[in-house]
Write a structure and sequence with these properties.
Layout: E1 7-10, E2 13-17, E3 28-31, H1 34-42, H2 49-65, H3 72-87, H4 94-113, H5 117-147, E4 153-157, H6 164-167, H7 173-182, E5 186-192, H8 199-211, E6 215-218, H9 223-228, E7 232-237, E8 241-243, E9 248-251, H10 254-263, E10 268-271, E11 277-278, H11 295-298, E12 299-300, E13 303-304, E14 316-319, E15 326-329, E16 332-334, H12 338-347
Parallel strand pairs: 4-5, 4-7, 5-6, 7-10, 8-11, 10-15
Antiparallel strand pairs: 1-2, 2-3, 8-9, 9-14, 12-13, 15-16
The protein binds 5-S-methyl-1-O-phosphono-5-thio-D-ribulose.
Length: about 350
């Protein structure tokens, strides 16, 4: 089945598929400077929590690789600057800071062993590639655990795009749907368009269509209507950050979907890697919410659709844990109470466990 490739490390640099141009055009760029990678993340050439983590790691690798520093100390100073630039790009998805931290830990480990700059640079490139590889394996694990919770047939709903484009693997929420579909479950996906950036209409519809999975595109204000119909068996979405108590930040619109799901007795699931947990934040109130340009609300694909008035664009919202029926991860399935199950999964080995 078709799997989109949003990012790759190549001999020429970091290649990214420009997600802003989809579905109309499939155009890729190759970046050789970490500042270009930071700009690409900020401007949504690449987006989706795990994918921007991979992009940030590759940005660090690029920055270190092309550094003219002549000592480990000078390279360490540059690494700090590279990480600061990349970490300022998007605030909500914790995978980004997770990936930067992991690159820095690897740098510290390696420079404790050697001062050979060529070897250090090579190790950083390898670590970024390793993070990308692990994301692919992680998605497969999430997919396997989550697929068991999908209905045998009928409609399922998602939000935004939590597919291959958002992770660099098979996707988290769409990975669950894909695995279930490949297992023979006869699913039909309801895809809300996800205003204002239209990740549902432009990206999820594109991915599912290319993968041959049946879908119906709906506008965001149809969500309640479809949930009330009694025909939707489950909702599965991705996540950008999960607080210690299970409160989950995801694309704007997810919260109202979860509330409507509860009202209509439709189970609402989250699919996300353990790297999306932020156990340092007790609950959703501490999750930073990115405010994007109001022009993305007043304009659609560059065309003005509203008068020149004040508009707001919080890019994410927080769904309280009480609306979440389960959280699928690569290490198992977390159920309420999440304060315990998330902590158990975070400290468990990579092997599969079901935490309760
Ligand atoms: O603003 P975006 O497109 O980066 O937002 C993406 C989402 O909200 C996704 O649902 C989330 O990152 C999970 S991606 C597997």
């Amino acid at each position: 089945m078709y799997v989109a490739q949003p990012i790759a490390w190549t001999v020429r640099g970091v290649t990214m598929l420009d997600q802003r141009r989809l579905p109309a055009e499939e155009i890729s760029y190759t970046y050789t400077d970490y500042r270009e990678v930071a700009k690409a993340i900020r401007e949504m050439v690449i987006r989706g929590a795990p994918a921007i983590g991979v992009a940030a790691a590759m940005g660090v690798a690029l920055g270190v690789l092309h550094s003219s520093a002549e000592s480990v100390d000078a390279l360490t100073t540059e690494l700090r600057e590279i990480c600061a630039t990349l970490s300022e790009t998007r605030p909500t998805a914790v995978d980004l800071s997770w990936a930067l931290e992991r690159m820095c830990i690897r740098f510290a480990e390696f420079t404790a062993q050697t001062s050979d700059l060529a070897k250090i640079k090579q190790a950083m490139v390898e670590e970024a590639q390793q993070i990308h590889l692990e994301k692919k394996a992680t998605d497969e694990g999430i997919g396997r655990f989550g697929a068991e919770f999908m209905p045998r047939e009928g409609q399922v709903m998602t939000q935004c795009n939590a597919g291959a484009l958002a992770t660099g693997g098979i996707g988290t929420a769409l990975g669950v749907i894909r695995v279930a579909y490949e297992q023979g479950k006869k699913l039909h996906v309801l895809v809300p368009e996800t205003r204002p950036y239209l990740q549902g209409a432009r990206l999820t519809a594109w991915e599912l269509h290319k993968g041959g999975i049946p879908l119906t595109l709906i506008t965001d204000n149809m969500v309640g209507h479809f949930l009330k119909s009694g025909k939707v068996g489950a909702i599965v979405t991705g996540a950008d950050r999960i607080a210690a108590n299970g409160d989950t930040a995801n694309k704007i619109g997810t919260y109202q979907m979860a509330v409507l799901a509860k009202e209509n007795s439709v189970p609402f699931y989250i699919a996300a890697p353990v790297s999306t947990f932020d156990l340092s934040i007790p609950d959703g109130d501490g999750i930073p919410i990115e405010e994007r340009s109001a022009a993305e609300v007043t304009h659609l694909q560059g065309v003005r659709i509203a008068p020149d008035v004040h508009a707001a664009h919080p890019a994410f919202d927080v769904t309280p844990a009480r609306y979440i029926a389960a959280i699928f991860t690569e290490r198992g399935v977390a159920l309420a109470p999440y304060t315990e199950s998330l902590r158990a999964l975070a400290s468990s080995p990579q092997s599969a466990v079901t935490a309760r």
